[in-house]
Design a protein that fits this description.
The protein is mainly α. The protein is built from 10 helices and no strands. It folds into 2 domains: 106 residues, no CATH class; 163 residues, no CATH class. The chain is globular. The protein starts with a helix and ends with a helix. It binds zinc ion.
């Protein structure tokens, strides 16, 4: 019944497990480097593949050995080699964040009922690991674009919703409970994805409409509505409820402290996307663990 891959993974010597973790970390850092390009170029409607990376001040192209994720930032001490312009810390932050999150997602993989490090919710399919890497990627790109420009591009939100639906058909076990055998039916995967997208989209859409009626202005951006739809399409309706709860709590906490510290006025807008992303990431990594704890408290 056990797949050979699980046996291989669980019998592997510790040095090999460390080696694989390092490879995944580096793999994540490389993607993070590409996401930096996406964060800059997508909202400016530029191509993400052409032209090659160049310094925003002196326009000189960046050589491959100066473009190594994390390392080059440290070696060049956050400056352009040609003109010495300071490079924003955001670049290394995105690379580190992507590397760490890719690694955490990878550590979720293994035999269905074996425990995972750090209390991570288990995942038994490589297809799901790949899908979750994709979710992490969309959330990171969306977060940093929202922080900088106060928009969530359709490529991330509508795109995420469409890809979430398709992948739920390809790997329906994306929506299966961890103890479930690998053969989760396709129809059920698609149904769970549709439910999640509809609830996510519908819930925030209602909040946006009601908010507009009460406050006579847009209290909620439509990008946030679509982003929660995309989160639901990948992670299901439980993820939507959790994300709404945690993100509104975290958002009001930060918003209130900004108002109290007089950095913002009561009427000023703060981007909500990063809070949705943060809550969705907590669910993505520990959701099943938290849900089971919650259910066992309700029904001992
Ligand atoms: Zn330069």
């Amino acid at each position: 019944m056990d797949q050979p891959l699980f046996i291989l993974m669980s019998n592997m010597a510790i040095p090999w497990q460390i080696y694989f973790s390092a490879v995944v970390f580096a793999w994540g850092a490389c993607w993070g480097s590409f996401f930096n390009v996406c964060i800059y170029r997508i909202p400016r409607n530029l191509s993400v593949v052409h032209p090659r990376s160049h310094c925003p001040r002196c326009q000189k192209p960046i050589a491959w050995y100066d473009n190594l994720p994390i390392l080059s930032f440290l070696i060049l001490r956050a400056r352009c080699r040609q003109c010495g312009t300071k490079i924003s810390c955001r670049y290394v932050l995105v690379e580190l964040l992507t590397a760490v999150l890719f690694l955490l997602v990878w550590l979720k993989f293994g035999r269905p009922l074996d425990p995972r490090p750090l209390g991570l919710a288990p995942v038994a399919s490589l297809g799901v690991i790949f899908s979750l890497w994709l979710v992490v990627s969309g959330l990171i790109i969306g977060t940093f674009i929202d922080l900088e420009r106060m928009i969530l591009p359709d490529r991330i939100t509508w795109g995420g919703m469409a890809v979430g639906l398709v992948l739920s058909g390809v790997w329906p076990e994306l929506h299966a409970p961890p103890s479930f055998p690998n053969s989760f039916p396709i129809g059920l995967g698609l149904l769970r994805s549709l439910e999640g997208a509809a609830l996510g989209f519908g819930l925030l859409w209602a909040v946006a409409i009601i908010g507009r009626m009460i406050f006579k202005r847009d209290a909620m951006g439509f990008g946030d509505v679509k982003l929660l739809g995309a989160i639901g399409a990948f992670l299901g309706w439980q993820a939507v409820l959790f994300t709404v709860m945690i993100s509104s709590f975290a958002g009001s906490l930060v918003g209130l402290s900004l108002v109290l510290s007089r950095k913002k006025k009561m009427q000023s807008r703060i981007p909500y996307g990063p809070y949705l992303a943060l809550a969705a990431l907590i669910w993505l990594l520990w959701g099943q663990t938290l849900w089971q704890a919650y259910v066992s408290i309700l029904m001992p």
